Amino acid sequence: MQPASCSSEPNQRIARIAAHLAPPNTKMEESSGPARWNCRAKGGSSGFKVAILGAAGGIGQPLAMLMKMNPLVSVLHLYDVVNTPGVTADISHMDTGAVVRGFLGQQQLEDAVTGVDVVIIPAGVPRKPGMTRDDLFNINAGIVKTLCEAIAKCSPQAIVNIISNPVNSTVPIAVEVFKKAGTYDPRRVLGVTMLDVVRANTFVAEVLGLDPREVDCPVVGGHAGVTILPLLSQVKPPCSFTQKEIDYLTDRIQNGGTEVVEAKAGTGSATLSMAYAAVKFADACLRGLRGDAGVVECAYVSSQVTELPFFASKVRLGRAGVEEIYPLGPLNEYERSGLEKAKKELAESIQKGVSFVRK
């Protein structure tokens, strides 16, 4: 078959360009002008459909850029209540396989999540100096509830990755919404605690003089302060720490978010490292969906590892989402003490999330 040339298909080529500039069924365009920011590439790679809710925010923008680079993503939906057109236009110019589509405002939320395989939720307000994750609760709880109601209606089979803080409470909120809608599947709702693992690997590597990519430090519990419990006794490669090193590492891993908030001095929170960690976790979910074997990461999920209904620990990811939850393994005395502190605070945060939806 003779390859198509520019001269042989002028009408088809012009039609493709016109469709690219003003695609049919565009949802974001309010005016009659060309909707460049909802453009579609011709074709597109085979892969998964991913939606990012909160794509114009401090985490959402770098997260969207990194997901556009992921070869497992064929279609990328970007949703936010403001500024989505600009972010969509910008990222859509990247010469990678994923087709990017933008959705703006509450009226387009359902379209943004319809038919997607994975939903990533970084939406909400960031922490500022002096704020705890619980200070964010009243704002972010309502946002997560609204987003999850749309997911339950339009994409109940999607795997949902929740980043919005406080994760210890927003995951229970999401679960209650899905229960109320009759769509809850505990395997498909995951709180993203990957940043704690990323930090642990980095800080442990600094102490040991290793490449962080060679280090694996499990982090269990939750995703705030003392609920973040690094299991330094289980670090790979096997190693030993002095008590001073254990105290230093535990404190720094637990307060890594505060370290960034204070360093940014009122201009933001951990956005770039969070986006990196979120993409690392989303990629693991996509590899699980593809059927890859042995995909194991830490995540905050519905769990029976402890007496609490939710807990972060190592899980194996597969086609259904979470396919196996691993026990904590042997803990030393320091870690057992930390676990009790973590559970006490975690129980309160979980109840706060559950009560928010049931009230």
Automatic annotation (TrEMBL):
Pfam families linked: Ldh_1_C, Ldh_1_N
Record's catalysed reaction(s): (S)-malate + NAD(+) = oxaloacetate + NADH + H(+)
Domain annotation Lactate/malate dehydrogenase C-terminal: ranges: 193-356
Domain of life, per lineage: Eukaryota
Residues noted as binding substrate in the record, renumbered to the chain: R127, R133, N165, R199
GO molecular function, one term: L-malate dehydrogenase (NAD+) activity
Subunit structure: Homodimer.
Name by which UniProt lists this protein: Malate dehydrogenase
Originating species: Linum trigynum
Lineage: Eukaryota, Viridiplantae, Streptophyta, Embryophyta, Tracheophyta
